[in-house]
Amino acid sequence: MSITKERIIIAAFTVASLFLLTGCEDRPAPNTVHSPQDVPGKLIGAIEGSPSVILAEELGVSKGFPTGVDLMYNLKTGVLDCVIMENSVATELVADTSGVRILSEPLREYELSFAVAKENAQLIRAVNTALTALREDGTLGKLLDKYSAGKKYEYISPGDAGQRPGSLSVAVSPDSPPYSYKNEDDEFMGLDVDVARAVCDYLGVDLVIVEFETRELVTAVWYGKADMALGWVPVEGEDKIAISDAYANTVHVVIVRR
Asked: 6-108, superfamily in CATH?
């Protein structure tokens, strides 16, 4: 064997050895979540403070991260088995991230409604009347388009809003975009906030936003800390509160490595 050929063989062996020692360690484990049925028992990532955290805790071992970018990095590097989040947020995030995909089958679908104390039947009837009127005059549809399809629509309170005495306090989460969140001026924004404002305008009362974490929305109403709450209501809270007609449907999906 020539010296040159021997050196080539040794070099190739050295490169292969380095790959075995280092390269494989950097490669994430293969994806093991191929359908929502595979999610239970896994290490699941979710955005901190969002409804996804509660779902993750219900299904497996939950690990929260402050941003979607953090979630995608930890998923791609194999720290997480999968990520769950609301579909509209997931679609935008995955479009900007290579090496990940959304499972075609949704994890869970549910309706967004107002939650009111069970004994306050009059308020539930008033809210349902308002939602029906807002649906029929097109206001609710325009709001939903704004948040689901990126169409331009800005809800502006009519001039006669808040003409009746009193107000309604509404509990929302600050960490559930695009439904409820705070902007750079520390003001509440989102679909839930716009719907709450439109309902209060229809009823002729002022809107007072009260901040609670997602997991505290039901107890905020139950203990009288807010007149109403908006967003996702866990199943275990349904026996403590009354639920209005739905103002939107939402879908949670699973994101996995390709």
From this structure: Periplasmic binding protein-like II (3.40.190.10)
